[in-house]
Amino acid sequence: MAQFEVFAVKVEPSHWLRGYKGSDVIRSCEVSHLPDSATLDWERDREPTANTTLIYNNTAHIIIHSADQYSEGTYNCTLRWNGALIFSIPTTLQFYK
């Protein structure tokens, strides 16, 4: 008999509004259940981010300090289970011109 794990995921805020250069940007990605063999991370271009990522209570928080034009782009909240990608939720960071 096959067994399945079901996950609920929430990214807050649900979309990134435009931000201001030089400000700190914080986003959270929460999963309902995180098995021991699973990892929840923020990635950019399929690589771990150089920004601060904090994992606490099944939630991955990304903190981008003093964001600048190089911080713009698409970030993904990813869940991997035994190394295999289960899901990736993209969100885009842009700044006011």
UniProtKB/TrEMBL annotation:
Residue limits of the Ig-like domain? 21-79
Alphabetical list of Gene3D superfamilies matching this protein: Immunoglobulins (2.60.40.10)
Q: Which residues form the signal peptide?
A: none
Q: So which domain of life are we looking at?
A: Eukaryota
Q: Which residues form a coiled coil?
A: none
Q: PROSITE patterns in the record, alphabetically?
A: IG_LIKE
Q: Could you identify this protein by its name?
A: Ig-like domain-containing protein
